[in-house]
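W.,

You were right to be curious about this one. When I first looked at the sequence I had no strong expectations either way, so I just let the prediction run and decided to look at it fresh. Below is the sequence, 167 residues in total, followed by the output.
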Amino acid sequence: MRRTLAGVALIALMVTGCSSNEVAKGSDPGWVSSDAAIDGVNDAGFDCSEDSFSGTKQVITENPATEEPLGGELILCGGFQVFLVGDIDEYWESLSSSCSAVTEEELASEAVQREVIVGSNFVMSGTGPDQSYPEEAPASDLARAFGAEVETLKSIYETICPEIGST
């Protein structure tokens, strides 16, 4: 059960796309590779330099809740993460098999109120305490820079698991 919450939290950390690095502020970047995403984040004025952390990219191989293959790349930046997922709707569909494992306890927890940034092919989350974002890169600024939306984990649960509704 806790694995499901961890899985959705991991989802919040994901990003992917397909476009150039020269993205105008407020437009969806459509990154096609982790290198393009790193360049795009840096070009937008946020810290995603390889010098600011160890290990730029990780390949994510499975959904921790279902152990099903995911694909995508997790990019660790200064105080936040980007997970490249391809088409976001297809990604949410791939996670819907985890819905039956979501508990009332998880839905009532503070963890589901965490902010997640969702783009057309990526998900971002903070890496600070309780997945908070750094002061210099709040969720609203990151979302605005990349034409994305700020959502909560609960709203994501409700999107991919309609049977949860407004529990």
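Here's what jumped out at me. The beta strands are 57-59, 73-76, 80-84, 115-118, 122-126, 149-152. And, maybe more interesting for your project: Helices lie at 2-12, 34-43, 88-95, 104-108, 139-145, 153-160.

Coffee later to discuss?

I.
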